Amino acid sequence: MTNAVQNLGFPQPPGFWYDGAWRSGDQITLDITDPGLLYGATLFSTLRMYDGLDDPRTAWRAHRSRLSQSLKSFDWVMPDWARVELGVQQVAAGYPVVRVTLFPDGREWIMGRALPQDLIQRQQQGITAWVMDQAVGARSLPQHKTGNYLTPWFGLQNAQAQGAQETILVDAQGNWRETCTGSLWGWSDGIWYTPTLQSGILPGITRDRLIQGFRCHNKKVLECAWDQRLIGRFTIVAYSNCVVEVVPIRTILRKSETLKYQFQSDVLQELFAALVSGHSQMS
């Protein structure tokens, strides 16, 4: 496992970056007709800062590329990327996690936050996840990371009410797609599985790097739909994203049953090793 560089100095005073300038405090002013406010019409990407934007673990080029592709798909205004990068660097002076939000007219809003305080514990001991009801189990425009994140937010609120830390989103047939914040991984009989992009999931940056890392280690990984038959074969389940890297899921709550999985094994370490290799392959 890798650790983010902890920057202790904040820009003066603490705040955020918006529309080309550093802003103090924790309040932002938007027009009441702004589509970002009314409809969640924004795009965002969240990155974990390591040793600057050029560090392959930060994966800034991948984040920028994904945002650019979505902007082109929506025919939105491309931002001033030099200004965006300046804002990211300003925010990263005080926070290890940076969220870049882009508006349809090219404005940028960049804010930071801390890593989860119990991240190491989660990586070592695993978490509990809750399977969301299929009637509300899909993100809006799932192949893009838009600001309309009501389904994941709603799912996390319900998961926490169940004593869980993550939610698994499903499709109309009950197939598992992804978690509210990351990509799913399952292991069975020497093979790693992850839901296919055709399942209607986000093309995760860490997901891509893990796949590359597995190939580098000559490990078999299959992208496919996660139906109930396949799910029943898994002995290890985990999820990944750019902030937490890889976290095992030791318990899954599903309707009236509780599923248990291994969370301490040599096989699980293959995920962490694949991520390291994936970073080097994509640098």
TrEMBL record:
- The membrane spanning regions, by residue number, are none
The Gene Ontology CC terms held by the record are: cytosol
GO MF annotation terms? transaminase activity
Under the heading Pfam families, the entry gives: Aminotran_4
Q: Name one GO biological process term.
A: carboxylic acid biosynthetic process
- Specify whether Transferase is a keyword of the entry: yes
Q: Which domain of life is it from?
A: Bacteria
The keyword rRNA-binding is assigned to this record: no
Q: Which keywords does UniProt give here?
A: Aminotransferase, Transferase
The family annotation for this protein states: Belongs to the class-IV pyridoxal-phosphate-dependent aminotransferase family.
What is this protein called in UniProt? Aminotransferase class IV
Organism from which the protein derives: Romeriopsis navalis LEGE 11480
